[in-house]
Amino acid sequence: MSRSEVSQGGALLKAVGVGKRFGGLRALHDVSLVLGEGTITGLIGPNGAGKTTFFNVLTGIYKPDAGTVHFSGEPLPVGRPHAVATRGIARTFQNIRLFSNMTVLENVMVGRHVRTHAGVLGAVFKTAATCREEAAIAASARGLLDYVGIAGQAQRIAGTLSYGDQRRLEIARALATEPKLLALDEPAAGMNATERTQLADLVRRVRDDGTAILLIEHDVKWVARLCDRITVLDYGERIAEGSPQEVLAHPKVIEAYLGRGAA
Amino acid sequence: MNARSRFINWGAAVLVLALPFATHALLGQGWVRILDFALLYVLLALGLNIVVGYAGLLDLGYVAFFAVGAYCYALFASPQFDLHWPLWVLLPMGALLAACFGVLLGTPTLGLRGDYLAIVTLGFGEIIRIFLNNLNAPVNITNGPQGVSLIDPLHVGPWFLEKTYHVGGIEIPLVINIYFLFLVAVGLAIRLSQRLEGSRIGRAWAAIREDELAAASMGLNTRNLKLLAFAMGATFGGVSGGLFAGFQGFVSPESFTLQESVMILCMVVLGGMGNIAGVVLGAVLLSVLPEALRGLGGLQEFLFGKVWVDPSNLRLLVFGIALVLMMLLRPEGLLPARARQREFHESQ
Amino acid sequence: MDIFLQQLVNGLTLGSIYALVALGYTMVYGIMELINFAHGDVVMVGAMVALTALQVLTGWGLPPGIALAMAVAMAMAVCMVLGLAIERVAYRPLRRAPKLAPLITAIGLSIVLQQLAALIWGRSYRSFPAVLPADSVSWHGVIITSIQALIIVLAALLMAVLLLLVKRTALGRAMRATAQNPGVAQLMGVNTDRIIALTFALGSVLAAVAGVMVAAYYNVGNYTMGFMLGLKAFTAAVLGGIGNIPGAMLGGLLLGVVEAMGAGYIGDLTGGYFGSNYKDVFAFLVLIGVLVFHPNGLLGSRAREKV
């Protein structure tokens, strides 16, 4: 284990030697990543480097061909997204995937599903416990909308929100599952400078409130300012890992971003 | 609720209560019977709506659950095995059994994508029917194609529905008794659907329908939730089956063909899936329309002095054309759910 | 062993017919993700048209071979027009509609076609004129009738032509492009409306041939005959992987053989408890079994969602 992999604080997530193939394409090869509690970690790399694939393995959408992933010290369920979410990893998607015909509030309320319990009988007989739970779900969903700054939009249809607000809503929905780790897939894509700054503030606030963050982003400067640690992927392999300063000075990273000869 | 909508609600209630009496007086027993069946179809359509409208699963074999409920009632309340169990045991039993069949079918197949699931459910429906048709040998269970007859009439406590009652000079025959029994069942089913739709479970179904992968990533156990939708839908089917058997006094595999499944699906989609009012409208319309079209023979005679086209052909022909036209004119259904309406108009 | 080979021949005959009909389902599905519920009834129309034409033509004293060829041609022409009309009236206006809307118009059309056929040809079963020689060859106890041979050979020929058409011609390329991505195909200059219409025409022509085959094989035609056949063919298309042309062929043949074997062996396998009346159960169980282990059918490609 290299010096840079020694984790600070408790290791929340520990992926070792993760590999994934699609037919002849080696999408991920021997990728390891350690992520500490209370940190913001960036995952960067050129297009097609395997960042989203890694996210999909992590969140149970793909089954890895090799490697192990531990979360809070226990192996993470493989290939079962809902079980991963239950364990405390929530995510957003590169191409926003909201429940676009439901209201903004309902979207976040769906996120509460995994931490609530009312079943069919409760619903049918409208028991006191169910009503209380339903009220609590709505209240915490409203709270989260307020937290990300779109409380005024609660009753709108999710699909009609502006692009930036849809990204915020996706974050609120993910936070509703009470994650220990929030995985953001290109959260700043398509945002202007002001929105990016606001987003960075939001991400820090989430971190300060006790949720670790793993995020994919293209804008290296933005990532460098925001993240505690950065891992760089290229052609499915990890080429660098460390603090933003270390990583950005790494010859392989410069090569990957600027092309051979620039280093 | 404002005064106007309260007025409308009361008006609707009075209409629904007076309908069988007016129909009986003006059109006769036969038409009240048609209303009874319309209510039964409403019940079935509401059940299928849970599966198709709420959870977004295309089920082409829904009639299988109807069959399970019907045979459950028929076998335990008829001379077939000389068992005569009461309604209040048999209806829940039929519902439970149907739910079990739903889970049985769903467990291996709910991972399948939409149209693959459709064909599997279709196959399941056919399998059930073929078994009902052939389980008269080597041991006679279902009495094969002849079906089970002499099924005990429906009794609700001290109320013998096959009797004609007289209340204040008004005659209440079997068909009207049945109307009110079915009306209660439909009322309960509507209430149940409303509560499910607005619950945590209903929200989860909607999420799965919208984007299954995102739903799973939010921690929804999509397989179990879909199974639940299947089982809930099946429950409605099972109850309707029991009511059908008791009302009809006779069941045979002929009543449970694929065409029947398809017709119930048409009711849901044409009415406006996911919207209870739409589903009710669709079911009433599609079950009454073919009966109303029976009048085409008389109409021909009236207009042309003789019957040119075989009325039974013409009836179905017009029905088919109506189905096509209604769908072309209102692709999102007659009374679409709010969300569906948006879906459609945004894609344009 | 004799029974086995005999049932294999019977199954391949039936399977060839299923395959031809399944192609219609699969091509339409591949291009517009629509279950064309009225397709089975197009098969029926083909059979009934050929049946009537054959009666008239042989009545005029034409030699059976020529009469049959002309009858088939007429059936193909009628079905082609019918297929085009169905697409134009019931599906094209609904291309952007919710997914289940065209399913309902398809069901409505299926009812319309059946009732029209009942008005034209009556409700009773009509026998197919015996124009084909009732010869058969016997080989090690396996009997192959001339009509079975004809069905299998003709079906194989048609499928080969179809495969060549799809894989080797510009039209086929346009069809595949439209199936992949209609929007992009349109940008590349493909007239997708025309391609979709052609797909319906092609499927309907194959359905017409299959209809004649079925009527000739069982010597009978009726306005309801398309329903069960369509259902089986659709099952076959799903079995092979819906949207996949070789899959429909394989699925059709396989379903035919499975059914024939089921009919031949269920009695023995279950100690006589279940007879050949369970052959459809057998076919559907095979379907469910295949889909449980192969969720996209035998040859269907794994549609991986872009996340």
What is the tally of beta strands of chain A?
10
Rough outline of chain B: globular
Radius of gyration of chain B: 21 Å
Uncertain ranges of chain B: 344-348
Range of strand content of chain B: 5-15%
Integer average pLDDT of chain B: 89
Question: Whole-number radius of gyration of chain A?
Answer: 19 Å
Q: What does the main sheet of chain B amount to?
A: 2 strands, antiparallel
Overall description:
- The complex is a heterotrimer of chains A (263), B (348) and C (307).
- Chain A has helices at residues 51-58, 81-87, 104-111, 120-125, 128-148, 163-175, 193-208, 220-226, 244-249, 251-258, and strands spanning 11-22, 25-36, 40-44, 66-71, 74-75, 89-91, 181-185, 212-216, 229-234, 237-242.
- Chain A has 263 residues and is α/β, with parallel strands linked by helices.
- In chain A, strand 7, helix 7 (193-208) and strand 8 (212-216) form a beta-alpha-beta unit.
- The two termini of chain A are 26 Å apart.
- Chain B has a domain at 27-258.
- Helix content of chain B is 70%, strand content 5%.
- Chain B is globular, with a radius of gyration of 21 Å.
- The two termini of chain B are 35 Å apart.
- Chain C has a domain at 14-226.
- In chain C, strand 2 and strand 3 form a beta hairpin.
- Chain C has helices at 2-32, 39-59, 64-91, 101-121, 146-168, 170-180, 182-187, 192-218, 225-240, 245-269, 279-293; strands at 126-127, 136-139, 142-145, 220-221.
- With 307 residues, chain C is mainly alpha-helical.
- Chain C is globular.
- Classes of the chains: A alpha/beta (263), B mainly alpha (348), C mainly alpha (307).
- Chains in contact: A-B, A-C, B-C.
Keywords:
heterotrimer; A: 263 residues; six-stranded mixed beta sheet; four-stranded antiparallel beta sheet; 10 helices; 24% strand; C: 307 residues; mainly alpha; two-stranded antiparallel ribbon
